[in-house]
Design a protein that fits this description.
Radius of gyration: 21 Å
Largest sheet: 7 strands, parallel
Order of helices and strands: EHEHEHHHEHEHHEHEEHEHEHEHEHEHHH
Shape: globular
Distance between the termini: 14 Å
Strand order of the largest sheet: 3-2-1-4-5-6-7
Length: 392
């Protein structure tokens, strides 16, 4: 098949969950199909990043836009009573260039990531598949309740608009995919059973156990500009760790990940290290004894948990993050949903090496058995193929 992939962001460097999913799907699909990539970017794509993606594609088209222009599109979306998310990534210029690229490629199927690309493909007669990725409306709803009053009103508006876009997708696209059953269940549309679950995978050859010196007791990794991660970092340091430090005052924490906000940087202390971007995130995992992800917001699948488990690191997280993985509490990882319980789990696993090792091994075995990119992309390939055949 000739597959035209439409992305709101260039999928490299892999510093966000949507980019990780897109890059690996492109990589796997390119083994049997011709991939043509169309995407937008608000920053210049380096040669190294371009070549990392280009090797899997027959052609790559990147449309650059300014943040100022995108901001104006958001304002227009607000006055037009449309989603701010969709407005940010939509312009007449982008739509025009997409249609020109589609006409040149003549693809068998369009594979679009997230509702942000919806406006680009409206009216196209080519078979279309949309990857919701996750339940974005639910993500926004959860963030809304943790926002300040003035921002909460904006989030409530966006929640309604995004939910409306998710509903519209059932009429615009021929097939829909999503990352987990959990996300599928929180899109309350009468045809939600038609959404096909295509989970993420993990490169277990890359994310594999490493034997290095342990410098930290706890690590939390992620894009430290993403609101759910910022909230989790604050929650860990301000609410959970004081309870841990009462029992184990020497416990050291590492916050590792790209683009830390000022809020995250201010969490640094003698017992808390904020590293910022690192060249090899595996070292952050390997240098720590526990991975703790106290997520209170967000949606989708937490790739950071898959990575930590693949590196045989015992993990502690919340139900929001664990449920999409289909794991059992106390088996593949530990689950707790308030500061006192999370602190208790941390102390228990730091003191009980046997239990810590057992959970780490169970998590490792579970991930390596169930999250293979080739298998996951085979499921996506079936959706794309069926869409083309059904359209014929």
């Amino acid at each position: 098949m000739k597959i035209l992939v439409a992305l709101p962001r260039f999928p490299h460097p892999i510093d966000k969950g949507d980019k990780l999913r897109a890059f690996n799907q492109i990589r796997c699909l390119s083994q049997h199909h011709d991939i043509y990539l169309f995407c937008t970017s608000n920053q210049w794509v380096s040669d190294d990043d371009f070549h990392a993606v280009e090797q899997y594609c027959k052609a790559v088209k990147v449309v650059h836009y300014s943040r100022l222009g995108a901001g104006w599109n958001v304002i227009r979306a607000l006055f037009s009573k449309k989603s701010l998310q969709v407005g940010y990534w939509t312009s007449k210029r982008t739509i025009k260039k997409f249609r020109k690229f589609e006409k040149k490629v003549q693809p068998d199927v369009l594979y679009c990531q997230m509702i942000r690309t919806m406006e680009w493909v409206k009216g196209s007669t080519t078979p279309k598949v949309l990857d919701f990725q996750d339940a974005l409306s639910k993500n926004i709803e959860r963030r809304m309740y943790h926002s300040r009053f003035w921002w909460r009103r904006v989030m409530h508006y966006e929640f309604k608009m995004v939910r409306s876009c998710e509903y519209d997708a059932f009429d615009i696209f021929d097939a829909l995919t999503i990352i987990s059953e959990t996300d599928k269940d929180v899109i309350p549309h009468r045809r939600s059973d038609e959404i096909v679950v295509v989970p993420n995978g993990i490169d277990t050859a890359y994310f594999a156990p490493l034997e290095v010196e342990k410098r930290y007791d706890i690590v939390f990794c992620g894009n430290m500009k993403y609101a759910p991660n910022v909230d989790a970092a604050k929650y860990l340091v301000n609410d959970i760790m004081p309870k841990v430090w009462k029992a184990m005052p020497e416990t050291r924490v590492l916050m590792s990940g790209t683009n830390p906000t000022k809020t995250v940087k201010r969490l640094a202390s003698e017992r808390v290290t904020v590293s910022g971007r690192v060249d090899d995130i595996r070292q952050s995992y390997a240098q720590s004894r526990l991975f703790v992800a106290p997520m209170r917001m967000g949606s989708g699948m937490q790739n950071k948990l898959l990575e930590a488990m693949a590196m045989r690191l015992p993990c502690i997280t919340t139900a929001i993050a664990s449920t999409p993985l289909g794991v059992s509490n106390g088996q593949q990882l530990a689950v707790a949903d308030n500061a006192a319980q999370i602190a208790e789990k941390i102390v228990e696993l730091l003191k009980n090496q046997q239990l810590s090792t057992e959970i780490a091994q169970n998590g490792y075995s579970y991930v390596t058995a169930n999250f293979d990119w080739q298998k996951r992309c085979a499921e996506l390939e079936k959706v794309l193929s069926n869409t083309v055949n059904n359209k014929k």
